[in-house]
Each structure stands twice: as C-alpha cells, then as structure tokens.
Amino acid sequence: MFEVFSFGSSGWGDEMLMGALMTVLVSASSLLLGILIGIIFAACKLSNIFILKIVANTYTTIIRGIPELLVIYLLFFGGSSAVMYIAKIFGYDGYIELNAFTIGTIAVGAISGAYSTEVIRGAVNSVHKGQFEAGKTLGLNGYGLYGRVIFPQVARIALPGIGNVWQITLKDTALISVTGLVEIMRQSRIAAGSTHEPFIFYTAAIILYLVITRLSNILFDKAENTYSKGFVSKGAL
Amino acid sequence: MKNLKLLIIGLAISAISSMALADGHWSKIRIGTEGAYEPWNFTDASGNLVGAELDLARDLCKRMNAECEFVQQDWDGIIPALVNGKYDVIMAGMSVTEERKKTISFSKAYMTEPARFFTLNSSPLSTFTSAKNLNLDDDSSATSGTISALNNAMKGMNIGVTVATIHEDFANKYLDSNLKVYPTQDEMNLDLAAGRIDAMLCDVGTAEAFMETSGGSNVVTFGPNVFGGLLGEGVGAGIRQGDADLKAMFDKAIADAAADGTISKISMQWFGKDLAP
Amino acid sequence: MRFELMYESFFKIIEGIPLTLQVVSISTVLGLALAIIVALMRISGKKSMSIPAYYFVYLIRGTPLLLQLYFVYYGLGQFSFIRESILWPILKEPYWCGIITLTISTGAYSSEIIRGGILSVSKNFIEASGALGLNKIKTFLLITLPITVRQALPAYGNELILMVKASSLISIITLMEITGIARTIISKTYAPVEIFLVAGSIYLIINFIIVLAVGLAERKLGTVRAN
C-alpha cells in the first residue's frame, strides 16, 4: 500500500514533499505580503483622513465577505488583465505573464492582508497612549517615535494574532491549487486521480498540513517567548 | 525596520522578475494543458506532464523551430486563461466546435476520436444494445431512434460528464438524466467506480486508459460511438483569434506531422490505435 | 466588462441561493450541537473526554476545508466496506457529504467559541444557582447556556459568515449552489471576472444581512455582565 509513496520516478513520496515545501513557501510569502498590506491599511484605518479610512474599510469588508475561492479566481483571471491595463498606460503593449507562484502569493496575500490589518490595528490601539506622549517628550518623532518605540511594542502585541493569521493563510493556500501551483492540495489531487487511491493521498496531505501546523506553532511560541522577555504583563505598562 | 525595507525591495524584485515578457515572434510558444486526461495529457509519478499531446506538441514545435513551454491549467478555466494570455495555445484533448469558435480559433484537427458511454458491469445499462455508430450530422430517423433509445435507458439516472465539454453539451441537449458535472475526468472516474453515478460520457481513449487500471476493472462500455454535430470536428489546438500567424504555423506543422506518419505513430504509442485525422 | 451578461447571469445565479442557505443552515444547526458536545468534553476535567476533543479540534483547525471535503467525498468512497455499509446511502450523496464536512468544520471552530463563552460565565452565577436549589443540568440549561449564547454571539456571527463563505467549496463536488452555477455559466461564456463579480456581490449581500441580523439579536438579548 505504501509503495505509492516511494521516492524517485515510480512513487509520489518526493512529489508530495515538494508540494509541502511549495505550500510553506507560498504561505510564507503570502503572509509577508499580507503583513505589508496590513501595515498600510492599518495606518489608513488609524489615520484621520476620511477617504483612506473608506478605502481600507471597503477592502477588509469585501475580502472578509466573499469566499476566498472567488477572491482567488478573480485575481487569477482579472489580475493579468489589470497588470496589462496598467502596463498599457505606461506604453507597454503586450502580454505580461504572472507565474502561478506570483499570482498565488498576491491572491492569498490579499486575503491574509485583510486579517493582518485588523491584528495590527488592534495592536497599535493597545499600545498605551503614554508611550506616544513619552516618546514625544523625549523629542522623538517620525521614525524615531514609530520605528524605535511604537513598532517594537506593536510587533510584540501583534505576534499571537499574526500566528493565527499564519494558520488561516496556510490553509487558504490549498485553494490556489486552482491556479496551477503544485502545492500539497494539487499534488494530492493529481496523485489521487492518477493512482485511484484518494484515501491514502488525502490522508497523507492531512498529515503534512498537521506537521506544518505543529512546527509553525512551536516557532511562534518561541518567538513570543523571546519578544516578551522583560515584559511582565500588559497591565504593567 | 531595516528588515522591512529589505522585505519590500525583495518583494518588488521577485514580482518584476516573474513577469515574463512575451514577444510576438513565436520563437517561444507556451502551451496550456490540463494534465489530468490520460492518455491525452496527464501527470506521471515524477510530477511531469506526459501524454500523446505532449509528445505531439514537442514534435510540432521542432517543425516550427520554436521552443515549447508547458503550462498546467485546470480545464474549467482553460479558454479564459488562453484569452488572458497565460499561454498561447491549448492542447488539452479539446474538440473543435462551433460553440468554442465564437471565442477562440482552432488549428486543423490533429486527432479524432468518438465519445461513448461507460458504466459498471453490475449495471443494467451494461446490457444495453444499439447501433454501432451515432453520427449527429446524419439527420435520418435512425439517428433520432438511437438517441431516444439511449435517453429512455438512462432516464432519471445519474450521468456524469466533465464541465464545459462536448459531452456536457450532448447530455444537456439529448438526455433527460440527472447530470453530475465534474471538474476533472479523474474525479469522474473515481465516482463511477464508487457507484455515485450510473454512467459517464467521455472520450473512448481516456475511459479505456481508466479501464486498464485496477480501479477501473469493473467498468464496461455501452451504446454507440457518438460523433459529429455538436461533438465537433476532432481534437485541435486552440489559439487566440488574433494570432492568425500562429494558427497558420500549427496548421502546416500538423499537416506535415499527419503526412509523414508522426501523428499515427504517437497515437499508436499512447492509445494503441490510430487516431490521425 | 460585459454588463448585459452580468445582469442576465445575476438572475441565474440567485437560483443557487436556496441551496447555499439550506446547506449552511443545516450544517450550522448540526454543527452547533456538535460544538456544545465537544466544548463540554473539553472542559469536563476528565482526560478521557478532553484529550480526544482537543485532538479533534486540532485536526480540523489544522487542515484546509477543501482537503476535508475531498477526504470525505472521494477518500471514504474508495472503500467497498464503506460502500456496502448502512452509511453509504448518505455518503453517496454529494449533498450530505457537503453537509457532513461543513458540520464537522463548524463544530470544531464553534466549540472553541462556546468553550470561551462557558468559561466566561462567572462562578458567582453558578453558586447563586446552586443556592437556589437548581441541580447541575438545570444550572447549565437555565443559567450557563443563555449567558454563553449572549457572550458568544459576536464571535458566532463571524462563524456564520465563514460558513457562508466555506459553502462555496461544495461546488467542487458537483453541487449547484451559488458558486456552482457561476462556474457553469463561466464554462459557457468564458467571462470569469464578470460572473465571479456577480457571485461575489451576492455573497457580500448575504453576509451583510447576517451582520445586521446578529447585531439586532445582540441588542435584543441585551448585555450580560460577565463578572
């Protein structure tokens, strides 16, 4: 029964592991893109500029209100057209191809970004006002204030939330199998179809996801412990 | 903060470098295929795309002095992705039909194969008998007689087809069955074997490939060879309507490959029979 | 943009709303029952109960719903002993496979919400209820559960939205709900962006109504002071 997982040209073992690697890679790049989006839109939401607030709220409402599968399909089919349209404005008139990895990262990153926005916004809000005031009293502003005083605290408070976003992102990458990127989900679907052994390949996929989840939990726990050194509790701030 | 800057730069670079700028001089042709339609195009245990169309595409590209690159794409988005420019040609067991010609153009057909119904040997349908062929271009009463016999035999049953295929069109037009529409042939095969559907309609070659595996050992065929009409004019390469030059290149290469017996050879190798047009 | 096509498809796609709502509501009700059982097992204090419940939640939360769906639908259907069992009439139907998968999924996620809600009910209420002579079961049904429901409502509203979104996946196992119909139209019109925009808007409207309804329920039920 297990010869289907042998390595080399006769079994699917090495392909499944490569799929797992791809899942980790695309999840990580989507999470990073999402955090970047999250920082920008959290800043928009926290700003006093009405139009920026509207834009950020529209983004998070739409992403959280329509199925992830549709977001991915829309970006998959509409993404290249949109890029080509923008390129046309700049005078380039031809086909621009975004590969499956880039499209997948953009699509899952856009979903992940909506969740990261909320996490980061919450974290900024929970930084004590006194910290801003104290920073200003010390003559800090701009990078000095936000980069050296506020950001490290936001990062620490946001870390558990980002851990949750990672979980969501990891699972959402299963949906980008529709873009042709060969990650765990697509690889197990191909193998299940080819060998007519769906049970064993979907079981293997479940185990791979659980292993990735377990390992990333350990990493996030470690990171949380490292970053909360020197902090007693939020109440002490 | 430094890390963040690096991250932004890194993301920007990776996004730019992944934009492959295609030019119009067909020295490199990107071919979209599904990779789940044995033996036309499928994925082997090394994760490579293989099949009759992959071999044929490589041969055609050699004739056209072009470099071939294969792009995997799920069937239900295979035409929109061509129109979108994700690849330049579809070679995915796609039949040339009037309906599809409204959206894309086609090379001349490189292989032809009829469709047929398949069921489990335990099903009452397995003993269904009819004329050997059902040519939908033939307007005689024999044609309508065969269709109504098929329809009566399968009335109210669960019949599987794959999405956006000539087989789905056939079932929609001629059958009063309960249609189950699948994203891939592989998954329809699994459900036929599991007994979730009473029969499936598909290309003969792909079903025969399934019947040779242990999962498909209980599968038998019934009814006539179905061809003509809305089932189209054989399997051809799908090409964007604007790329008439590329279509001309494919037409010539396919004609040459048919004339010197290459298509027959590839067909014999993968189907065990000659499907050359 | 082909606006006429979008307008025409809108009326075809909304025919899928009943199936979407049916699957979501049946799975939600069954899932809630499952969630309460799992939550009670987790806080039971008995290892034989809490450990299986913990791993069940871990398994479901750690794997993608799409994979769970494939596993239930294609994975289980592979075995002849399942096809010959009394479960087959249910597992044979994509409709029930969809409901089973969604029920298990929401059961796991909601059990965490309910567990949080139960734990937030103050000991004082429980003690007061004991002083009034109510037994354990009556205390749970009359005191703990209503407060839990109120406490868990905002998070549960969120879960309902996730369920509506998740139901789009059952189109993959041949069910013709909103997304399934949208995909069928796309396969004929080759206009994925237009059609998915229409389908997306319909989901957005459904979810907007859920947000309003949950907000209304929150106000109706008033607030409970947790301590």
Observed structural traits:
heterotrimer, A: 237 residues, mainly alpha, MetI-like fold, 1% strand, C: 227 residues
SSE pattern of chain C, N- to C-terminal: HHHHHHHHHHH
Outline of chain B: globular
Largest sheet of chain B: 6 strands, mixed
The strands making up the biggest β-sheet of chain B line up spatially as 10-14-9-13-11-12
Number of domains of chain B: 2
Q: What percentage of amino acids of chain B are in beta strands? A: 15-25%
Going by CATH, the architecture of the largest domain in chain B would be 3-Layer(aba) Sandwich
Oligomer: heterotrimer
The fraction of residues in strands of chain C falls at under 5%
Radius of gyration of chain B: 21 Å
Give the N-to-C terminal Cα separation of chain B: 64 Å
Query: Helical residue percent of chain C?
Result: over 70%
Which architecture name of chain C does CATH use?
Answer: Orthogonal Bundle
Rg estimate of chain C, integer Å: 21 Å
CATH class of chain C: Mainly Alpha
Low-confidence stretches of chain B: 15-23
CATH topology of the largest domain in chain B: D-Maltodextrin-Binding Protein, domain 2
Overall average residue pLDDT of chain C: 91
SSE string of chain B, helices as H and strands as E: HEEEEEHEHEHEEEHEHEHEHEEHH
* Spatial separation of the terminal alpha carbons of chain C: 56 Å
Largest sheet of chain C, in brief, is:
none
What does this structure look like?
Chain A is an all-alpha fold and 237 residues long. Chain A is 76% helix and 1% strand. In chain A, α1 (13-46) packs antiparallel against α7, α5 (129-137) packs antiparallel against α6 and α7 packs antiparallel against α8 (198-227). Chain B folds into two domains: 24-112 and 233-271, 3-Layer(aba) Sandwich (D-Maltodextrin-Binding Protein, domain 2); 115-231, Periplasmic binding protein-like II (D-Maltodextrin-Binding Protein, domain 2, 3-Layer(aba) Sandwich), CATH 3.40.190. In chain B, a hairpin with a 3-residue loop joins β3 and β4. By secondary structure, chain C is mainly alpha-helical. Chain C has a single domain (3-221), classed as MetI-like (MetI-like fold), CATH 1.10.3720. Chain C is 80% helix and 0% strand. Chain C is built from eleven helices and no strands. Chain C is flat and about 70 Å long. The mean pLDDT of chain C is 91. Chain A binds chain B through residues 8-12, 15, 18, 29, 32-33, 36, 73, 76-77, 80-81, 83-84, 94-99, 101-102, 143, 147, 151, 178, 180, 182, 187, 190-194, 196, 198, and chain B through 1, 7-8, 11, 14-15, 18-24, 30, 35-36, 38, 42-47, 71-74, 77, 80-81, 84-86, 184, 186-187, 189-190, 193, 213-216.
